[in-house]
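Case study.
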Amino acid sequence: MLNIAVCIKAVPDEECYNIIKFDPVMKTLIREGISMVINPSDLHALELALCLKEKLGGEITLISMGPMTVTTQLRECLSYGADEAYLMSDCIFGGSDTLATSYVLSKGLRHIGNFDLVLAGNESADGATSHVPSQLGEWLGYPHVMEVCALNIVDEKIAAVRKKADNYFVDYTVKLPAVFAVSRGMNKVRYPSIRGILSSKGKEIKVLTAESIPDLDISMIGLQGSPTKTGQLITSSFHRDCMLLDGSNEEIASAILGMIRPVIDD
Amino acid sequence: MEKPDLDKIIVYAEHKKGHLDPSCAELVGKAKELSVKYDDNVVIGAVVLGYEISEVVKDLSQTGVDYIWYTDHPKLTRYNSEYYALALEEAVRFIAPELILIAATSQGSELAPTVGARLKTGVAAHCVDIVADDNGQIVNIVPALGGKFLTEIKIPDVRPMISTVKPSVFVKKDVPANSNVQTVRIESKALDSYESRIWFVAESVKEENEKPIEEANVILCAGMGIVDEENWRKLNELAARLKCAVGYTRPVIDLGVVNNDHNMIGTSGKTIRPQLYVGFGVSGASHHICGMKDSQIILCINSDENADIFRLSDYKVIADCGAILDAMLELTGGLNG
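After joint prediction, the assembly is written out as follows.
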């Protein structure tokens, strides 16, 4: 029986990136009309949890930090077959950077129970710092491995993992409990079953506020607990004057080869 | 310019098989550039960890750094995130720098947030630039929303500040070697007593002739418009004949034609700046653009004349990329080689 926690983040839908506008006066994103989705990498972490549960039995607990609207994404995760979901939501969590976010999540996980595995997506689609899994491991005092693309449980105390490292792979065994950041290449995410969708409707999403966690150090969370301060957003616009290559396919191919050949590597 | 609180910048010097990672020179170049802004009044140091690394330390002394701090310990024989984080944390506490630059390689991407958490300080991830503002404060420029926007990150109150930078984001500069480099060995007490909970088992062998995509002069890049496995095979055949590297976008991985994401180009993959980038069916999503926008010449083939990638291209071809691939194969030894 494995107790598995999966960290979930709601992010703006990538499909909406091209319509996200920037308010030049307020220096913020205009989020209106932007739909939120489950961070794609997190679904691969959830898929791993579901596979492990099918094989070895256990419980899957979801945890997220964010506004109350994230209940939508957590409910969707429940429909895949997770057992429980916790949303850490409190306005004083707002403005947390990765250090503060991982602190809040670590306190939430400690409050909920004991886990053998804590899984997260390797990176979020929006911030993409890939900091939270390692930092969560540090706060929890667990070993942590990033970019995990294969994982097996050897016994209750040990996991065997394959980590993608630049252009090669490294295999490790890791003492549990541990935090693993799951790479998107690890698995193919299933579709939720009709039964899963129906049963998720009735499940309660438990909300944890700052008050729910007695030993939460307020100075470590939100803006004051965040060493990094985010400044202005700059619209990154790149533009080059583009010339059309025209002609028959053969002429075009010849022109492209004419550009490639002088600069190819030795 | 005044330097309110910047005395030391250190670069984490990664090395593999006795060779310094190319990112090291890129980071030292940036540190030097920042130092010039502060009237050259900043010590530029490097930290290097490993076992029996005297050669690496020697190479490092030629990179233009003023100081080298190194920890030489059997537990650092190969990269282990726990031992390396412990040794780096120990070195940083000893050196007390204001700014640490770490390459966002596989290793650096683990070490930076880990050490950041241990020191309870901030880490700016995947900086595309690091500058000093008018008040002498360090400003990190980082991509947001997959590179659709850029944003500034400052770490005003906590030291050290940590910045990570993907390989190839900064151009390597020739920094003259300092003839009077100070080398300091750090004796690690913490490593002696710590036993890691992560054990190395095995490492996949990298093909010797496989050059990192960051170092390729020409990159043929597949986008979703490549459509199927047949075109993917053709693209690889063409690349093999021309000795070019092959990269791809995220949707190509999702198509299932690539079996790993080593050479994915974009915010969560590699950053490249080749002499020539040729995109086949690349649409131009912001997270991909973020990883290839600094290519010297960008040529793209796409059947959609309104593809976003054309706004960033020097040359465009509005055509089916399969047909162009066929024509290019014909001209390089025939369709079937």
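Observations recorded in class. Chain A is about 25% helix and 30% strand. The two ends of chain A are 56 Å apart (CA to CA). We will return to this complex in the next lecture.
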